[in-house]
Structures are given as C-alpha cells and as structure tokens.
Design goal:
The protein is of the alpha/beta class and about 400 residues long. It is built from 12 helices and 19 strands. Helix 10 links the parallel strand 17 and strand 18. The chain binds adenosine-5'-triphosphate and magnesium ion (MG). Magnesium ion binds next to loops.
C-alpha cells in the first residue's frame, strides 16, 4: 500500500482533547503542521459520559488543528483508554505443510489468526493482537520467521480487548463530526511509542502515563509488549484531595497544585516549612499542599507496581519506570519514584518530531505524538481499520441506495 503523506491523531483525554496533524516521510518521521487543543467535557476517567458535550470538545479541537494547518481532516488515529480495557497473553500455533517447509507471510497471518481464536465475550471487542515473539520447531526468540525453514510455527501474542459500548460511544462522537477512524489505539501503547527507547523496551521497563482521569500502564520486556492496564486514578484525584484537604474550590486547588505543588518539597528561601502561599485570595501552607500531593502520588506509584503480574519487578523491569502524562510535570516525581522503586525513574517527554512542536514538548502530549508515530508505522494494518473499511463500504452502499430512493 502507498503511504499517505498526512496523518491526524485525536487524543480524547479527560482534561483536554488534542488533534495533531502531521506530514509523514517514507521512513516514518513526522513533521507536525497543526495542533488543536480544546478543554474536554463529557468525559470521566477516560470514558465518554455525555456524547453531545464530548462531540463539541472534539469538534473544537479538530477545527483548531484544521485552521492551523489549512488541512481538512477526513480520518484520524484515535486513542482509547478506560478501566474497561483488559489484556492477556495468548499463544497461536500452525503447521508448515508445504514441501519446502519455508515460512511465508501467509503463515504469519494464519498463526496470528490462530492466536486470536480465544473466546471474547459478545460485549467486548479485540483492539490489538500484537505478536511478542515467534518460535520455529520450539526454537524461541525468533523476531521475523519469514524465510526460515520449519515444521511448526508458534507465536506469543498480547491481546487487548475493550468494552464494545465504550468504544462505540467514542467512535460515534468522532464520526458525527465527519471524521472517520483510521484505527483505535490503546493510549499507553501510543505514549510508549513517543517516549520509550528501544533499549528500555529490550531490558524491561514500565511506562506510566499519569493524565487527568487515568493512569495508563504498559510494560515492555525483550523488545515487546508484556502487560497493559489502566488505573482509574490520576491528576484529578490529586486536585480533589487538595481541594477537600485544604478547603479550597476545585479550580483554585488545581492552580495551587500546578504552580506550587511538589512531591519532594524544597524549602529554599522559606524560613519555616509552613510558609503560607496564596492564590486567588486563598492562603494555605506550602508543606500541607506538598504532603497531600505526595501521599496520593506515592499511592499511585505503589498501585502501578501492584498492577504488575509479578512481584519481583527488579528482575522484570531493570530499566525502571518512565513517567509521562500531564501529572508527570509534578516537581520531584522522579526522585520520589526512585525512593520507592530503587530503580531508574525518568520523565518521558515526546521528542521524535519536527515542525510546529513547541506545545507538544510536554509529557501531557505523549499520547498525541505517539498516535501519529503508531499511525506512521502501522498504516493499513489496524484491526479496527479492516472492520472500518467494511463500515465505510456499507455507508457507501447505503448512500448509493438512498440516491435511488429519492
Ligand atoms: N505542572 C503540573 N503539575 C502537576 N500537575 C499537572 C501539571 N501540569 C498538568 N498537570 C496535571 O495533568 C493532568 C492532565 O494531564 P493530561 O493532559 O495528560 O490528561 P488527559 O490526557 O486529559 O487525561 P487522561 O489521559 O487521564 O484521560 C491534570 O490533572 C493536571 O492537573
Ligand atoms: Mg491522556
């Protein structure tokens, strides 16, 4: 398939919707030509709870990006998150029966289809089936088996499923503004594409995107995805704790958190640890603010570790933890992470891009940039895309039928 030169991503987050339009070169590099950010409404913990409100926010963000780039968005890569996401690892196996015993790309398709033959409840849909590694006649660790000889081909896959209704609500919002879906991508996979290095993925690393409503987790080992999960707790809960704990309106608490908040408070220039700080006529103690934030962030980091299916994480993820998402901007979060994990911890900011990128060089935009990188790499291969094509075809037939009935 010929690569398209311009791709669009829409990250429908709990606090903001971000549409990004970029030109893609033949090596998968991206040059951003337009970004549109709008505050989001109608979303809760990553899920659409009010279709009209969500649609408005998405429309505003798409319009802004279109104006900035002078490009009309027809379809987009869209991020999916929420507690309804589940993941599992599953094996597929096929025999190579041809005389030459040579593995061809058709065998890869067959073995992936065999891995997909797990029972998925009718109210769920497969979002991704990602090959983690192949084995030929029991020899494991094969990255690309095409062209190798063997009798039996095994594949180890990571399968991600989502609740059909939740996905459909999001798809409905986006289609209703005249934008088609290129593919639906699990948000932590997108964020990983933007901020993780190949080395980290090889050695073993946890990616945690701490956004507004959800903390999205992806674990990589030996170069491929090993585990994914979504926690329904993030920056919104931090602000709520501050608001309740210090008796502040939510907006003031949000501002205080972003402006002064730290999980490793620094008392430079302050004579007492309880120096007051004020915002909008509300005065509070710096130490109280930081104590509240620190307690919740510590809890989130411990919850991230609990999500791992194995407790001995030191051997599973020696490259440690990469934090991204808007809440990774919290001052001191890396140091706190290192104290808890005793492993490397860093903040991941998207960097692999050119063009109008100023706003995107912030951890809050890891998903947006990652969706574009994912799109550039997987153009034409998405699970959703193949079904989407069927949908588009049906729409076309429907429209043609309507023409004849007018
Ligand atoms: N400097 C900062 N210090 C602390 N928190 C911050 C800072 N900047 C942004 N945040 C927090 O980041 C959160 C928003 O992050 P992000 O934009 O990644 O979320 P989202 O993508 O809209 O939501 P989600 O991915 O959870 O659906 C908000 O809770 C905001 O308070
Ligand atoms: Mg997000």
């Amino acid at each position: 398939m010929r690569r398209r030169t311009t791709l669009t991503s829409i990250d429908v987050g709990t606090t903001k919707v971000c549409t990004t339009i970029a030109d893609v070169d033949e090596w998968g590099g991206i040059r951003v030509i337009g970004v549109g950010v709008a505050p989001s409404s109608g979303l809760h913990k990553g899920l659409v709870v009010n279709i009209n409100d969500a649609k408005e926010s998405i429309h505003e963000s798409v319009k802004k990006a279109e104006q900035a780039s002078d490009y009309k968005v027809e379809s987009a890569y869209v991020g999916v998150t929420g507690r309804h996401i589940t993941s599992m690892n599953n094996r597929g196996v096929v025999a190579i029966t041809r005389n030459d015993r040579l593995v061809r790309s058709d065998d890869l398709r067959r073995v992936l289809a065999s891995a997909q033959s797990v029972k998925v409840p009718s109210d769920r849909k497969m979002l991704h089936v990602i090959p983690r590694g192949y084995a030929i006649d029991g020899q494991v660790g094969v990255r690309n088996p095409v062209g190798m000889h063997g009798f039996r081909l095994d594949v180890e896959t990571h399968i991600i499923t989502a609740a059909t209704a939740s996905v459909q609500n999001l798809v409905k919002c986006i289609r209703s503004i005249g934008v088609d879906i290129d593919d639906l991508v699990l948000e932590p996979l997108a964020s990983s594409a933007a901020v993780l290095t190949e080395d980290e993925k090889q050695v073993g690393v946890i990616l945690a995107d701490i956004g507004g409503g959800t903390t999205d987790i992806a674990v990589f080992k030996e170069g491929s995805i090993w585990h994914t999960s979504i926690l329904p707790v993030a920056g919104y809960q931090l602000t709520r704790d501050v608001a309740i704990g210090l008796g502040l309106p939510f907006d003031v608490a949000e501002e205080m958190k972003k402006r002064y908040g730290s999980v490793m408070p620094v008392y430079e220039g302050k004579t007492e640890t309880t120096s007051p700080i004020s915002e909008d006529g509300h005065g509070i103690s710096y130490q109280d603010l930081c104590d509240i934030i620190r307690a919740r962030v510590e809890e989130i980091i411990r919850l991230i570790l609990l999500e791992l299916p194995r407790s001995e994480y030191e051997t599973l993820v020696p490259a440690g933890l990469v934090l991204t998402g808007g809440s990774a901007n919290l001052s001191g979060i890396e140091a706190l992470g290192r104290d808890i994990l005793h492993l490397p911890v860093r903040v991941g900011t998207p960097t692999h891009m050119h063009g109008i990128t100023d706003i995107l060089r912030d951890p809050a935009y890891a998903t947006s940039v990652g969706l574009l990188l994912w799109g550039a790499k997987h153009e034409g291969n998405g699970l959703w895309q193949s079904r989407g094509f069927g949908m588009r075809l049906r729409h076309l037939v429907f429209r043609i039928k309507n023409l004849f009935h007018q």
